[in-house]
Automatic annotation (TrEMBL):
Name of this chain's protein: RRP41 protein
Superkingdom, taxonomy of origin: Eukaryota
Pfam hit, one: RNase_PH_C
Domain Exoribonuclease phosphorolytic, first and last residues per copy: 3-61
């Protein structure tokens, strides 16, 4: 595995960007984007826009979604490392004859 994909939604609440809007906030009809990135390179693999984004609001909305992707990527990386360490520990225990 070379990289992970992380995705995050961001939308406008009033004129302020926010991530992970609730259903009620989404149904208010303001602009919303879905961004998926490769976590290592931070390159966008998907960008979907749900409604017209007001002038001057796309960059803050994109940056907010990118920050959300970064947070999700860190959490995924931590979970993968924890799972891998548990697996390696189990293998080591089995090889040495210890009961788990």
């Amino acid at each position: 595995m070379r990289d992970l994909v992380a995705a995050c939604t961001a939308g406008l609440l009033g004129r302020k960007p926010a991530i992970d809007l609730s259903r009620e906030e989404e149904q208010a009809g303001s602009a919303e984007i879905l961004l998926a990135t490769l976590t290592g390179t931070r390159k966008a693999t998907l960008l979907e826009v749900e409604a017209k984004v007001p002038d001057g609001q796309f960059a803050p909305l994109y940056d907010m979604a990118l920050q959300g992707c970064h947070v999700i990527a860190e959490q995924m990386r931590n979970c993968l490392l924890e799972h891998a360490c548990e697996g390696f520990s189990l293998r080591r225990s089995l090889r040495s004859g210890k009961k788990v």
